[in-house]
């Protein structure tokens, strides 16, 4: 009996994949759009918070505490609460929580990057007559770039998974296919949604890795 049911409802029906290709493409685009928008907004906000923290050292504790608090909010609860607000079912219902979940990862990595700049290097730059702005972009940022890229990699892979969870409110890209498969006990959309989510996370992680190598050629030279 179980073998008969498995034959009727296999893990993946290629006919479903071909028939629903337009819908699957739309889900991939929405998933990618939500991921990149969330990480971009999170990076901009985190850079601002990190700048405040580096300028006013006393603010690092409150900033980190706030980011950690947002990160600990269960994603399903966050999506569900915003779904009941005037935002309703819109891109903001998903984008606000997703952006919030990137803050702790990105803020801490940006701060770690700038803290990694040796004081002697800063003093040497000042002795050469560099302005604070020039020292920032020619000395401090290049040292911090690997930390920033690492934060972006972790945040992006995390958000790819959380976008899938957002399918619970009907605005989750490939997560919508996963939720459809669960509701209907029809495994093809679930398999496609889960597999493409994993593939998307791996692809974006690889792109960040290549971006990091391109932005830090001196690191390759040092390893050689």
Tell me what you see in this structure.
With about 220 residues, the chain is an all-alpha fold. Residues about 1-5 have low confidence and may be disordered. It has helices spanning about 1-10, 15-20, 20-55, 60-70, 75-85, 90-115, 120-125, 130-165, 175-185, 185-215, 215-224.
Task: Identify the notable features of this structure and list them briefly.
224 residues; mainly alpha
Note the topology.
Layout: H1 2-8, H2 14-19, H3 21-55, H4 60-72, H5 75-83, H6 91-115, H7 119-127, H8 132-165, H9 174-184, H10 187-215, H11 217-223
Helix pairs in contact: 3-6, 3-8, 3-9, 3-10, 4-6, 5-6, 6-8, 7-8, 8-10, 9-10
Summarize, please.
With 224 residues, the chain is an all-alpha fold. 83% of the residues lie in helices and 0% in strands.
Please work out how many helical segments DSSP would assign: 11
**Domains (count):** 1
Q: Low-confidence segments, ≥5 residues, pLDDT <50?
A: 1-7
Largest sheet geometry: none
């Amino acid at each position: 009996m179980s073998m008969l049911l498995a034959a009727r409802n296999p893990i993946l029906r290629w006919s479903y994949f071909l028939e629903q290709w337009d819908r699957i493409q739309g889900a991939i685009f929405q998933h990618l759009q939500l991921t990149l928008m969330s990480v971009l907004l999170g990076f901009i906000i985190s850079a601002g918070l990190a700048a405040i923290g580096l300028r006013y050292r006393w603010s690092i504790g409150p900033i980190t505490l706030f980011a950690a608090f947002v990160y600990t909010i269960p994603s399903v609860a966050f999506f569900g609460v915003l779904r009941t607000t005037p935002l309703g079912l819109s891109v903001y219902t998903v984008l606000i929580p997703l952006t919030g979940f990137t803050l702790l990862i990105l803020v801490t990595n940006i701060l770690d990057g700038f803290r990694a700049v040796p004081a002697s290097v800063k003093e040497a730059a000042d002795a050469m007559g560099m302005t604070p702005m020039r020292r920032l972009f020619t000395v401090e940022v290049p040292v911090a770039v690997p930390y920033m890229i690492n934060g972006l990699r972790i945040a992006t892979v995390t958000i790819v998974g959380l976008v899938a969870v957002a399918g619970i409110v009907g605005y989750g890209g490939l997560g919508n296919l996963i939720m459809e498969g669960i509701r209907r006990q029809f495994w093809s959309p679930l398999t496609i949604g889960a597999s493409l989510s994993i593939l998307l996370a791996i692809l974006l992680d690889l792109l960040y890795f290549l971006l990091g190598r391109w932005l830090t050629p001196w690191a390759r030279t040092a390893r050689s």
